[in-house]
Amino acid sequence: MIEYQWINAERAEQPLLVFLHEGLGSVSMWRDFPKRLCDALGWRGLVYSRPGYGRSTPRPPDERWAPDFMHRQAYDVLPALLAELGVDRPYWLLGHSDGGSIALLHAAKFPQRVAGAIVLAPHILVEDISVASIAKTREAYLTTDLRSKLARHHADVDSAFWGWNDIWLDPAFRDWSIENEIRDIACPLLAVQGLDDEYGTLEQIRGIARRVPQTRLLELPDCGHSPHRDRPDALISAVSTFAHTFVLSQP
C-alpha cells in the first residue's frame, strides 16, 4: 500500500507536479509546502510516501536496500504508482534530497513523460560530508528525541530510518553515482541547493549543470539541506518563474 494525497485535484486540465520526498520524509513531513506551491502555480499536485515511509507499507525487518534503491524507485515504483492513478499525460517532478536523485533518474529514463523537473539538494554522487552527517544522524536517532519526532510521520519509524541509514553508511554505497545517467535528461531542469547544506557541497548541483546544459541553478544563502523549509518564499517565487516560463512557451 502506498500513501498518497492529491492537491487541487479539481484542476484536471492544469499541469501535474509530483512531489518526491527526502530520505526520511513522508507525505506529512512536507507540511504545507506542496499546497502553497501548487496554489502559487495554479497547478495540481500529487504527494506520496515511498514504501517503507509514512503510512505506506513498512519495509520488512529482514529487507536491506541495495545501492540501486533509488534506481528501483525511479524506474519501477513511481511508474507503477502513476499508472495505477491514471496519470497519462506528461507531468512535472519536484524532488528533495534522495527524492531529487529519484527525480533525476526518472526524468532521464522516461524523457517523453517528464515535462520539467525541480530538484532540491539532490545527490549525484556520495561525498564525505554526506556520510559524516548521516553518521551523526544515526547517533542522534539512538541518543536524542529524534526517533520520537520522526515517529509522528511514520507508521514504522524504525523501518523508515534504518532502511535509509543502513544503505547510506554501507561501504558498498560509497561508489554510488548517477553522473552518467543524468546526461539523458531532456526536460527543463531547476537545481536548488542551500549554501549551508550539511549533507552535500555545491558540486552536487554544479555537477548536474555540467552534464545537463539546460539546467538552471539556484544557490540559496541562509539555507541548509531543506530549501522548502528554510527559504520557502524564495523557493516558491523561483519555481513559479521557472515553471511558467516553460509552460507558457509550449505550443
TrEMBL record:
The organism's place on the tree of life at top rank: Bacteria
All copies of domain AB hydrolase-1, residue ranges: 17-237
Keyword Hydrolase: yes
Keywords in alphabetical order: Hydrolase
Gene3D superfamilies named among the record's database cross-references: alpha/beta hydrolase (3.40.50.1820)
A GO MF term: hydrolase activity
Protein name as it appears in the record: Alpha/beta hydrolase
